[in-house]
# Entry
Amino acid sequence: MSELSGPALSMPSLWLVVVLIAGAAATYVWRALGVALSGRIDPAGPVFEWVGCIAYGLLAALIARMIVMPVGPLEATDLGVRLVSAAVAVAAFYLARKSIFLGVTAGTLSLIGLTMAGVTLF
Amino acid sequence: MTETALPGDQSARRRMFFSAAKEAAGMPSLVLGASYVGFGSLVRESGIGLGLGLFSTLSAWALPGQVVLVELYGVGASLLVICLAVALTNARLMPMVITLMPLVHDPAVPRWRYYLYSHLVAVTAWAFSMRRCPDMPRPLRLPYFLGFAASLWIASLLGTALGFLLADSVPRSITLGLVFLNPIYFMLIFATDLRHRARAMALAFGAVLGPFFHTISHDWGLMFAGLIAGTVAFGGERLLRRRHV
# Structure
């Protein structure tokens, strides 16, 4: 990769373009199928419930992995700080009557503050 | 066909398009835009250029799948794995389109156009349209959805660009906070949706299996964690229901 000159200016890597186009196609195909099949199948049926469960399971797996064992820049942060910040986000979310905005803000500020203070818990 | 194309109707539709766009430009755009700020920072920190980050938001425009893609790209997963994981994450779009279509369908609009419009179906615009459209005259429903979604789409692009540029210019610890926004945002989105028992179980299983499977395989781990967590939750919930628990 040629990111040394700054990724905003470098030539996009062809591989990444392929990945992004494939990802967009893997997303759009469901929307197009939805149009094609509307009125013909029941979206409340068990197949969709199963598919919905898989999507939830997959995203929960990703979220947990991003917090517990992140790949990339968050590796530089402390595991304890990430866990505490996630707990702060959940606490603020419920205290603020399920405000996603305030919860996310509190969790993010907690990570920034604790990281700046150089706190390490584990 | 001609009676829905009267000039008065056209201007009513245009007004609805813009009033929906204005409605979406408030809190919905702020929340979605902020979550895309996190994505923009993630893009920057994954060594992906701004142009391609914007291309992702423009062409995929379903945040969970975009984060899955960038994360799997970051661990060097194969194209097959990335496509399967993104497809599994986004399969929920199909039932969303299926439920929205009969609501916004306008017989005066040629069918092929719905294949273009369906690209704008994502959770926020969908949820608002499902709630608001039943009270509207049929010809105004599609413009409402399109105006609302167009506004959110623009907010998403602006958020992506802002997050990318911020990650470059703010102190390191703040950049880390912006990247951290991604998992926190989704965690709280799910916390609003725990009443559906099978999905809540899928979330719990997934959260436990995710890190564990990642240590087994960086490539396939995420997908198998999702498949197993989702399937066990789905099956388990049916079993519980059969026993009237």
